[in-house]
Design brief:
The complex is a heterodimer of chains A (328) and B (446). Chain A is an alpha+beta fold and 328 residues long. Chain A is built from eight helices and 14 strands. Classes of the chains: A alpha+beta (328), B alpha/beta (446).
């Protein structure tokens, strides 16, 4: 099946979604322009039935297929729409999509506390990135934002509902990875909240993965909270022999200490393998892990801005500039 | 007098009982369909009748039925949508309350056409007493051999159940209804798949409105072609309209589609004119979700032709100068009504009823309500009108289910047609201080 996104054509198998096709274009080529892949806040390739909720991945289909070339009347969620042969999609080339995406970002932000300075997620937050890339600089919302009390979901996880964007990923983790599901959405509309059934602690070997899937700082690791800003830590690829999971993780160093363990994330910032709670929360000594080497961070995030890989290039850059100055 | 097909016997004492209902020709369509027709014949008749869904969207029922996926060995279901929660709409309740057997009869005949062994009537929680009435009717039907095994001695067997919902508007959206019926939280599903392929418990399902299903009976009795002669153009047959607001005779009326709006509002047979002889200000013609139209546009189209009660005529002019027939909730406003306050009421409703799954509706409905609240309280800002316009525009068309559109359209229409009123509120807050729900616009402008 052939599909064209923002003028880039790719051949994909049947059943591929527009989003997957867009990511394949980015993966396959040394494609110059970024952003051909729509931003995702709720879709997660490793979670079944995820996607469709946040609407940040909406795209315009200006040709339905070879057989039925009519454009689709409304923008569609690229994460939930499968491609047809000959389909033509506009992502960043459509002013309508850009406009609507701005709207979605604004909607996601109006009830968000914007407490980034005290939020552990800052620096690796998808909402920060999304609003930076697609949002407005100023808010038009001048009402009180909704707030919730903090809740501990068991000994390891803190739920900060005020920051939640209702992406449903954590519910799907609870549903699909853990065997006793006690988590879901309570209430309705903009007062709905993620909660556990009668504050029941989620006690399961894989529950920690919901921290990794949470795009914002609504679910945080209680063993890491407030220890450091992420950009002062250095991620390393590491592994250990684990009977419960693959044992492949990122361990985050500050100095010689491991402050945090997370799943390994790919370029779409989705974890490659789920890790168990033991690896995540209890293995914080260097001796627990076999360190493979520094993690490659290929997005221009604040983490990589402080990252040693970039630091070396930064030093080179400074050296070059100094040379130039000296010549003058 | 217009033709009456559904409410013909409304005034017959005891029509809610099976005995009287049958005396008046009830269950003839079941006899006819089960004994003399094949399921396909029934579908064909409904197709010929041109019947369009009475739940709001107006989708041709025959076509919907023929889309039903029919794999071997898989159950199929008919589900009746009796959630009726749209502000201004109360026609289904009226029909079920007074002639419950017309729905049960329609359920049996329609299920026969679709090959459904089981059907459900999903009714909103607030209608619990109507649910009792329906259950009683179902019991009577079972006792008379009209439900259960081998109905009327044929080899068609069918069971029909009533399920009471929790009372949420969103559960009227067909996929949220199915979720709720399955015992889950009533969140709309992301489509595709559509219910015709994977509906209740993942099986092919048809969801139809109460009135749609009840209308199948007269169609089978008189024949599809005969039915199609009633009405006008592609708006065939009769339609129940629940009329409310500032009219002398609020209530449920059965009209022949194509009736001029002016006649509906002013004739003694229907609404009987505006209360106290007041002037007509505006009409919401099809339930709170559809665009409000000012008097001159509801009585006549932009082109100057009389506006008719039909799918086509009410939507003539698109949203710029037209509206929709929707679910038939006809709300009339006289000159004393504040469109802004009325809109605030609607906005509160949509905010309260949003399920919260998708960002534009979850956040946008609350935001619009807050802005409107500020305006009616006299703290509106001049920029609020454009802000409201922009918010509704960003919700419409970008959500999972049409509730987002339903929340956006009334806002858009009110601003489009009554912008001056918003400006009045914002620029002269001192004049609205003591205004309660209804106030005279003239008093403000004076
Ligand atoms: C938010 C929302 C609420 C709805 N409520 C109702 C309802 O109360 N009754 C109804 O018949 N249809 C309702 N509908 C329309 C249904 O989704 C569906 O289109 C209808 O039941 C189909 O029946 P019909 O083809 O017979 O009209 C609603 C739709 C939406 C989006
Ligand atoms: S807590 Fe996080 S993962 Fe869960 S719904 Fe909220 S934002 Fe999504
Ligand atoms: S549009 Fe509103 S009601 Fe419909 S799915 Fe989205 S949040 Fe829920
Ligand atoms: S990523 Fe597609 S709707 Fe959220």
């Amino acid at each position: 099946m052939k599909v064209t996104i923002d003028g880039q054509t790719i051949e994909v198998p049947e059943g591929t979604t527009i989003l997957q096709a867009a990511r394949m274009i980015v993966d396959n080529k040394e494609y110059a322009g970024d952003n051909i892949a729509p931003p995702t806040m709720c879709y997660y390739s490793k979670l079944k039935t995820s996607g469709g909720y946040c609407r940040s991945c909406l795209v315009k289909v200006n040709k339905g297929s070879e057989k039925d070339p009519r454009p689709m009347p409304k923008l569609v969620a690229s994460c939930r729409t499968t491609v047809m042969d000959g389909m033509e999609v506009m992502n960043t080339t459509s002013p309508e999509v850009i406009e609507v995406r701005k709207g979605v970002v604004e909607f996601l932000l109006i009830n968000h506390p914007l407490d980034c300075p005290i939020c552990d997620q800052a620096g690796e937050c998808h909402l920060q990135d999304l609003s930076y890339e697609h949002g407005l600089a100023k808010t038009r919302y001048d009402f009180k934002r909704r707030t919730f009390n903090l809740i501990d979901i068991g000994p390891y996880i803190k739920l900060h509902m005020t920051r939640c964007i209702m992406c449903f990923r954590c519910i799907k983790v609870a549903d699909q990875l853990t065997d006793n599901r006690h988590q879901g959405m309570l209430f309705r509309g903009d007062v709905s909240e993620i909660s556990t059934y009668i504050s029941k602690a989620i006690d399961n070997d894989f529950s920690g993965n919901m921290i990794d899937v949470c795009p914002v700082g609504a679910l945080t690791d209680r063993t890491w909270r407030f220890k450091s800003r992420v950009w002062f830590t250095k991620p390393m690829d590491a592994h250990r022999n684990c009977t419960k999971c693959a044992g492949k993780a990122h361990v985050w160093f500050k100095g010689d200490d491991i402050l945090r363990v997370t799943g390994r994330k790919n370029k779409w910032r989705e974890v490659e393998d789920w890790i168990c709670n033991e690896c995540r929360f209890e293995k914080k000594y260097v001796t627990d892990w076999v360190i493979e080497g520094p993690t490659h961070i290929d997005r221009h995030s604040v983490i990589s801005a402080n990252h040693y890989e970039n630091l070396t290039s930064l030093k080179l850059d400074i050296a070059k500039q100094q040379k130039k100055l000296n010549k003058k | 007098m217009g033709k009456k097909l559904l409410l013909e016997h409304i005034n017959v004492p005891g029509i809610e009982t099976l005995e009287v209902y049958r005396q008046k020709g009830g269950y003839a369509s079941v006899e006819k369909a089960l004994k003399t027709m094949t399921p396909n014949d029934v579908v064909e008749e409904v197709k010929k009748s041109g019947l369009r869904g009475r739940g709001g969207a107006g989708f041709p029922t025959g076509m919907k039925w023929s889309f039903l996926f029919k794999p071997e060995g898989v159950e199929r279901y008919l589900v009746c949508n009796a959630d009726e929660s749209e502000p201004g709409t109360f026609k289904d309740r009226f029909l079920m309350e007074h002639i419950p057997h017309s729905l049960i009869e329609g359920m049996i005949t329609s299920s026969f056409a679709l090959g459904a062994k089981t059907s459900y009537i999903y009714i909103r929680g607030e209608y619990f007493y109507v649910a009792r009435i329906l259950e009683k009717a179902i019991d009577e039907a079972y006792a008379a051999g009209l439900l259960g095994k081998n109905i009327l001695g044929t080899d068609f067997s069918h069971d029909c159940y009533v399920q009471v919902g929790g009372g949420a508007y969103i559960c009227g959206e067909e996929t949220a209804l199915l979720e709720s019926l399955e015992g889950k939280r009533g969140n709309p599903r992301i489509k595709p798949p559509f219910p015709a392929i994977a509906g209740l418990y993942g099986c092919p399902t048809v969801v139809n409105n109460v009135e749609t299903i009840a209308t199948v009976c007269p169609i089978i009795n008189m024949g599809g072609e005969e039915y199609a002669k009633i009405g006008i153009g592609r708006s065939t047959g009769t339609k129940l309209i629940s009329a409310s607001g500032h009219i002398n005779k609020p209530g449920v009326y059965e009209i022949e589609l194509g009736l001029p709006v002016e006649e509906f509002i002013y004739s003694e047979e229907y609404c009987g004119g505006i209360i106290n002889g007041n002037k007509l200000k505006a009409v919401v013609a099809g339930g709170s979700s559809v665009p409000v139209l000012p008097a001159h546009l509801i009585l006549k189209t932009e082109k100057g032709e009389p506006r008719l009660m039909s799918y086509e005529s009410l939507s003539e002019g698109g949203f710029v100068s037209g509206s929709l027939i929707g679910s038939g909730g006809f709300i009339v406003y006289d000159e004393t009504t504040s469109i802004v306050k009325n809109l605030y009421t609607f906005a509160r409703f949509y905010h309260h009823e949003s399920c919260g799954q998708c960002s534009p509706c979850r956040e946008g409905t609350g935001w619009m309500e807050k802005i409107l609240h500020r305006i009616v309280e006299g703290h509106g800002k001049p920029s609020d009108i454009d802000l409201l316009w922009d918010i509704q525009r960003k919700i419409e068309g970008n959500t999972i289910c049409p509730l987002g559109d339903a929340a956006a359209w009334p806002v858009a229409a009110a601003i489009r047609h009554f912008r001056a009123e918003f400006e009045e509120y914002i620029n002269h807050p001192e004049k609205i201080k003591d205004v309660k729900h209804y106030y005279s616009v003239n008093a403000i402008s004076a």
